[in-house]
């Protein structure tokens, strides 16, 4: 699994971006792909996360996202 930090997350819209620790392009993250996250919750800017990446027609997307700050 890859690791990175939340660059931006809009709780109202339910999505944001992860800056991977290994560098490269930011990766899109949607609330539905974050484990143990309720509808009205979000991720904090700078929060460390672990995730997998999938290629979508719109670009890279994070899946199976878990917070490393709350393990």
UniProtKB/TrEMBL annotation:
Sequence ranges assigned to domain CSD in this UniProt record: 1-67
Keyword Cytoplasm recorded: yes
UniProtKB keywords: Cytoplasm
Main location class: cytoplasm
Molecular function via GO: nucleic acid binding
Subcellular compartments: Cytoplasm
GO cellular component terms given for this protein: cytosol
Keyword Cytoplasm: yes
PROSITE patterns membership: CSD_2
Signal peptide annotation: none
Annotated protein name in UniProt: Cold-shock protein
């Amino acid at each position: 699994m890859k690791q990175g930090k939340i660059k931006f997350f809009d709780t109202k819209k339910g999505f944001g971006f992860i800056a991977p620790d290994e560098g490269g392009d930011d990766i899109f993250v949607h609330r539905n792909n974050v484990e143990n996250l309720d509808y009205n919750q979000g991720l904090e800017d700078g929060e460390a996360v672990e995730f997998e990446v999938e290629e979508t027609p719109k670009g890279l997307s994070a899946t199976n996202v878990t917070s490393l700050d709350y393990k």
